[in-house]
Amino acid sequence: MRTGSWLRSGVRSKVVEMPPSAILFDCDGVLADSEPVVNRVVTADLSARGWPLTPDEAGAMFLGLAFPAMVPLVEAQVGPLPADWTQTLKHRTAETMALEVTPVPGAAELLATIRAAGVPIALASNSSRVELTAKLTRLGFTEAFAGRVFSFEDVPRPKPEPDIYLAAAAACGVGPADCVVVEDSAAGVQAGVAAGCTVFGFAQVTEPEVLLAAGAHTVFTELSQLPGLLELRVNS
Fold first, then answer.
1. Residues 31-81 pLDDT 10s
2. Angle in degrees, 0-180, between the axes of helices 85-100 and 67-78, rounded to the nearest 10
3. What's 35-100's CATH class?
4. Catalytic residue, candidates 26, 33, 163, 184
5. Which pTM was predicted?
6. Is 84 annotated as catalytic?
7. Residue 178 known to be catalytic
8. Of 28, 33, 45, 184, which is the active-site residue?
9. DSSP 118-136
10. Assigned fold of 7-33+102-229
């Protein structure tokens, strides 16, 4: 996990006016420190199938991908998977999340600040619905999103396609051009850009240059930096 106050803006089209009309969050690696949990569940499964990846290797290969998008990558290494592989893996992951997942440092404080500023937020994740429910319930973040929570299962195509961020913007009642997306993976950044949003890349795992190359307007390393970047004004 990268620490420090590294921050950089890329050369991109004009950023949305600040503060934005809505903020659209990825979940894993942005609000929930869930990627180590997912990587551990995935590597246990793949090792049993004859592909002994380390958790770090799994993270590098699958970061930001929905389970269905992982299938061809896995089958190229281990052969055909059982028809229920994605269902089994998502429920196993959700059960582990419900017991172990922790927040990314500063996530609770950030959501409280945004709510106090009166800016609508939505969650858009390549996780399954059952995983999202487990994470948000354990972290106590469910109420903050007021039902504006989207899984890849809620849209025709997962990230890096724009569908989930278009749905999230619509749920907030604003156009995507007036939204900021907060993402930590190249696939997620590509999805936000394709939807027409301005994307801020959270570079705690992915290298900043990767996020900028994917289309991020600004890259930062600590959630505590985000209110200032968004020019949030807390309502008195």
1. 999 988 889 999 999 999 999 999 989 988 988 788 899 999 999 999 999
2. 120
3. mainly alpha
4. 26
5. 0.88
6. no
7. no
8. 28
9. T--EEEEESS-HHHHHHHH
10. Rossmann fold (3.40.50)
